[in-house]
Fold:
Amino acid sequence: MELFLQTLLNGLLMAGVYALVATGLALSLGVVGIVNFAHGEFLMVGAYLSYLLYAARGVDPLLALGLAFLAAFLVGALTYWGLIRPVLKAPELNQMLLTFGLSILLQNLALLLFGADTRVVAPPYQAATLALGPFFLGAVPLGAFLLSLALLLLLQAFLTRTPLGLAMRAVAQNRLAPGLLGIEAERVYLLAFGLAAALAGVAGVMLSVMLYASPTVGFVFTLKSFAIVALAGLGNLRGVMPAALVLALAEALVSTYVPGGGGLVEAVFFLVLFLALVGRAWRWG
Amino acid sequence: MKGVVLFLLVFVLLPFLPLGVWRAYLLDAGVFLLLYTASALSWDLVARTGQLSLAHGAFFGLGAYGVGLLEPHVGTLPALLSGSLLAGLSALLLGSVTLRLHGLYFAIASLAFSEVLRTLALKLPFTGGPIGLPVPPAFGGAPLAPYYLAFAVLAVAVGLSLWAEHSPFRLAQAACRQSEPVARVLGVRVVRVKLLSLLLGSLVAGLAGGVYAMKALFINPYEAFSLGRAVEALVIPIFGGLYTTLGPLLGGVVLVGLEQVLRLWIQEGYLVVYGAILILAILFLPRGLMGLWRRRRG
Structure:
């Protein structure tokens, strides 16, 4: 029983980061209407930034969080400006190919620059744990979970309380009407895409401590985020947290209870995705 | 059409040309060129229905593992066919769930599918795990066997592509690509057309993977199911010219040739070039080399 609860607890803590990354993906999908295969690479940028800052200057990852947010926002905004904007009206196939190309480019650029080795940022508190009765909580996963939750709540407030956030939701709902109301769709797209990248960048810093930075770390998260977003319903931001919870708990359960499950954890997201798609195909015939 | 025939002719005759010291190298590189070009054509066959397949690496890998596991027991040709059928079956399974949905679901699911197959190839008890699997050479090691097998695979791919290009099937595919609702109204069975295209594409990719295994003599999950294979299969047609037969052939010669050079120069990470070509082609050359050629002509 204790093992079971501990497993659930681990899954719950992981769900925060998953939701953070997947929310970014849902934003670019819902608001800009772009299937961004390079979303995870923004995460990778954040992870390597955190690693470089820590390795070169000893900058604490907590400080790197803010820098990564800004840097990833900038990378995202530039990507939108230079690459996404020209293909906004192109066929969906071209858009997907473009972001896929970007993903391949960035992954292999990282491979050329840093090699295939995994890099871990190990601040003094990396292995700290808190005991909660019979259970153990890693300080870093707990911090990452709380921070993710806080960021998602802030985003929610931004989307429901501020004029810019309302504009973003308006553009997501209807392509034409917001223009008539004087909302500049292009600016909103830029902001949404940058924001999506920034969320992934912050998640990247957390993962550089919890997991590692590597050329393919982002790619795995792109796939997992797609599974989450497919489960939540495309562009549905409210569904992301529960869907992330489903994925994270399923992974935690598999890694604890399936013999030799350590390697198979990497296949759980596919099961989730597959079931979500089967469900969708049934409902829509 | 003339270009396609010329292309095939050059490759049939390549072993008989007086190539001197280059002969062994060219024939060796030629096998891979033929195989990668065949899988690129098979990707294009799927793309003609507007579907982005990122699973061609997986079909390739399934063909390779099918051959690796079966060839010692049943011989060369039956193993090749079974490997290809294995890829086809998996494509039917993947397609029947995802092709009814909006196109992006298929792209995502196909990408995830290929990642999971690699995980399975690493974990299943009979695949040799991360170490891999030795594969006996084709027909007991006849010298030109891999070359002509590879050529046969390309010929099958070209045949299918020409058939699809010059029959009413082309119109059905184009209708699916341009607007599904309109295609439905016109009486095109959209899901069937997409599924058939995917099935044909996966069968060819499976064949290519099988011959690859017999040529490489050794396969492991990282090589056989590499994402690089899928990237290659889609960059070649885009660079050469989408929705044509000649485009992927041209693209294949240029890019696989380039890759041979780059691999000597940068070992890991040569895919960076493919990523860049993909982006640049989408932005500036949406109709590929074929588009350039047509523009100059008219």
Remarks:
- The radius of gyration of chain A is 19 Å.
